[in-house]
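User: I'm preparing a small set of examples for a lab meeting where we compare how different chains pack in three dimensions. I only have the primary sequence for this one, and I'd like the structure in token form so I can line it up with the others. Please keep the answer compact; I'll paste it straight into my notes.
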Amino acid sequence: MLLKTILRWLSVPPKAPRGEQLVATVGGIVSIVSITTVSYFFLGVEGSIAIVPAMGAATVLLFCVPHGPLSQPWSLFAGNVVSAAIGVSCAILISNSILASGLAVGLAIGAMHGLRCMHPPGGATALAAVIGGENVTQLGYGFVLVPVFLNCLVIFIVAVLFNSFFPWRKYPLARMKFRSEAIVPEKPMIISREHIAKGIGELGMVVDVSPIQIEQIVEAAQRYRKADVLAHFSFELGGVYTNNRPGSGWEVRKIVDCAAHPDPEKELIIYKTLEGVSSNLSDSCTKQEFAEWAEKKLVAVKAE
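Assistant: Understood. Below is the structure token output for the 304-residue chain.
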């Protein structure tokens, strides 16, 4: 109980799938190696120590949450460039480095709010302009273009290319062909007789029915659950749906036809797989199977 309370207060999120963890890790390595190379070339070791940590924070955003609003190109470029310009201005105009550091970060936050380009690493970029050492100071406003803008361009290119290999995590978000909409309530797991027996044993409950009878109740409840899932599912001819699973299990299907049948359980959905392992292949399944498979309805993103 105490552990659950602590975890709730800490707001510990669920673990990301291992595949996602691996993708983010490798992407971070490639990104930082590229950025560090650029920074070392223009700033040397001392200057790089100041600017690379800010880009490290940006890397976490672009490769761990590539679809997040703080990770998008406007936030990446404007957030860092504007913050760098503010940091350089504070370093030039204010001789007290402590005051200059505080104003640089605070004014950068205000500017990012006003320009709708909030990007947490921007605060570190502004600070780096003040405390980055002689190599950074000598650059003056050139620091805004090289290495800040150049580093943003490097991390952007790496993120676009690297995430292109994974259709469920395109970057930037505008490259996603669809956005998702919730279509059905969360689908409960199937409960077995063994689960019931273990639950009774764990709770120390005395019940006037056997696990077999409880299993029969659960099976009846599952039938109602399946009927409820089907009833709440909106089948749209030409509609596009996904199972919303990251990794190799991710699929996007488009309903191309429906085959009616006097028995509702035998009605078929004919679909084409648009994204995933079976891309461009057509297949069919029952309406129930399709409803159980689908987690999200996708809507095509309109080009602006």
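A couple of notes for your slides: Residues 2-174 form one domain. The radius of gyration is 27 Å.

User: Perfect, thanks.
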